[in-house]
Structure formats: C-alpha cells, structure tokens
Amino acid sequence: MNMNMASPDTLVISTVAGALLAGLLTVATWSDLRERRVPNALVLAGVATGLMLNAFAPSGSGFFSVLRPGGLGFLNAGAGLFAGAALLLPLYLIHGMGAGDVKLMGMVGAFVGPLSVIDVALLTLVAGGVLAGAVAFWNGTLSRAAENIRFMMIDSVTRGFCGQRIELAAAHQCAGNVPYALAIACGTLLHLLFVGNGYSLFAH
Asked: Residue 171: pLDDT band by 50, 70, 90 thresholds?
C-alpha cells in the first residue's frame, strides 16, 4: 500500500485501522464457518470502532487512500455504514444471505466510507458467486443452483409479460448454505489490494 503522502501519525492510524478491520472480519468469518452466524456484538463493536476512528483521526480521504490517507469524519463514516447495509439488503430480501451479512457489510462501510464500500460490495458479489459455485460443486448441487437461477429469471420475465411488477422471486430450492462473511472478507481484501496499487472504481 502506497503511503508516501502520509504523515507518521496517519500511517500509524491507518495501520491500526487495517489491523482492526482485518481482525474483525477474521473473527466474523470464523464464526460464520463454525456456527453459520455473525454475532451482533462483534458487528456493533466494529461499527463503533470504525465510526470513532474516522471521527477522531486526522482528516483525509479514508484510511486506505493513496492520495490523502486519513479519517473521513463521523458523518461520512455513518454514510458508509448505511450504504454498505443498503447495497446488500436486496440479497437479504430474496433470502440470498442472512441479516448478519448485511450488518457486516455495514460495519465495513463504517471503516472505508460510502464510496469505497461500493467497490467492496461489487468485489464481494464476485467472491460470493465464486464461493457459491464452489459450495454447490462440493455438495453436488451445482445443477440445482442453475435451476434456481433459471426459476428466478423465468418468474420475473413472466411477471413482466403479464403486466405485473417485475421483482426477483426467492428461489424455491436451496443450493447450499454459503458462509457469506468469507465473501465479504475476500471482497474487502481485494479492494484494499486494488486501492493500494491504484485501481478502484469509486475509491480515491
């Protein structure tokens, strides 16, 4: 990660923020893999940490920015919290993931802000798709997963032709329980790697 424009204080704070975020995501992933749930207490602690770090750190464009590393401020961190949760809320509504995963993405948003969390969410969806395919293949339910997608698409198109509101219907079969905290952790890591090398869609 390029920190050439960072002051020593900002470098320390950014390193601490990265270590805390990595630790929180590691614990969340471990819990999701073992118990298929992300503890609310962990997410709340992470949200509070992200908000406070951004509120009291020297001002900048985000802890992991290569241009002007530093805190985003409390309001921007809060916007990141709500943006992160909102981005994954549609998947929760169609039973594509649990409420804990939505909250976890909100926690990441409290650390990285409203723009960077868009990058994280997009990379998370890619990682989640790869993970879902791997789980379906491992469980021998890959064909069932394909049938789920076909069912959802046909149902939505049929609604459109009948003049009804088009919406994603919940799949009628489950292709496997995907630990989505792992996908969020992978998406966050990929985002940090890309930003550190100067590649991102929305982050600075």
From this structure: very low
Task: Give burial (CB, 10 Å; 0-12/13-18/19+) of 138.
Answer: exposed
Average pLDDT over residues 13-29: 94
pLDDT at residue 77 tops 50: yes
Give dist(CA 191, CA 13) in Å, integer.
19
H helices present in 36-174, as ranges: 40-56, 74-93, 99-139, 142-161
The crossing angle, in degrees rounded to 10, of helices 74-93 and 99-139 is 50
Q: Is the dihedral of CA 89, 118, 83, 106 positive or negative?
A: positive
Q: For residues 7 and 91, give the distance between their C-alpha atoms in angstroms, rounded to a whole number.
A: 40
Are the CB atoms for 187 and 121 separated by under 8 Å? yes
Q: For the chain, which residues make up each domain, given as ranges?
A: 8-141+176-196
Note the pTM of the prediction, 2 decimals. 0.77
